[in-house]
Design goal:
Elements lengths: L8 H33 L1 H7 L8 H37 L6 H34 L13 H30 L1
Helix pairs in contact: 1-3, 2-3, 3-4, 4-5
Length: 178
Amino acid sequence: MTETLPNDGLLKAARILTTIFQVLLGALFIGLIVLAPVVLLSQSHIADEMLPDAVISVGTVAVFLALVILLIAATVGLAFVFLRALKQMINSVGDGDPFIAENADRLRRMAWIVVIIECIKIPAGAIATFIAKQVKEDLYTLDIEFSLTGIFVALVLFILARVFRHGAAMRADLEGTV
């Protein structure tokens, strides 16, 4: 049986990938935060490009569009925090000490992030659908759907958090007896 080194290639790849995705998510977050007020200030362009036959005001559509952008920005920000917690867990595995209470807390926090992201998708999807009905046919599409996979991921993370909490408690008990 071969023993794996704590800092093996998989952990290094995971660290690199989480860092790359955090940088990309950070840039996307900033871009979305900048885009929301730009949409509000560009109402005449929205009217010309998207809403020739709309029955509601351009201002209303701009506000709803900015709101969807902000909801997507919130989701991106939460994904960034999720990856930060994942990276901290990867580092603890690399240090050879994964069964600690902090990792149980991280897993629970990651599970709640997944639940919150799934909840954000509901109003974002409803508003996006409303906007889509106001624009030229087949001009823009945005698919935001509630995901059962996301809920299952959250359940797995909640369960793993309990496993890690139990493992950390067992380890503390064992260290107390030695």
